[in-house]
Amino acid sequence: MAAVVGYLVVAAVAIGAALLVAGPRHVVRRDPTFELEDVSARQVPILGALAAFAVTGVVFLVTQARNVPDANNTSFATVMIMFVVAYMGYFSSSVLFANVSHRAEDGTFDLAAAQYAGASISLFSVFLGWFALKPLFETFGLTRAAEVTGWLLVGAVVVGYGLLATALYRSGYASARLVVLLAVFAVGGAAVYAVIAVIAPNLRSAEATLYLTVAAYAAGVPAYGAMTILPIAAHRARLAPILRDRWHLAIIAYAQGVTVLIAFLLLAVLGLA
Question: Distance between CA atoms of 243 and 246, rounded to whole angstroms?
Answer without folding.
Answer: 5
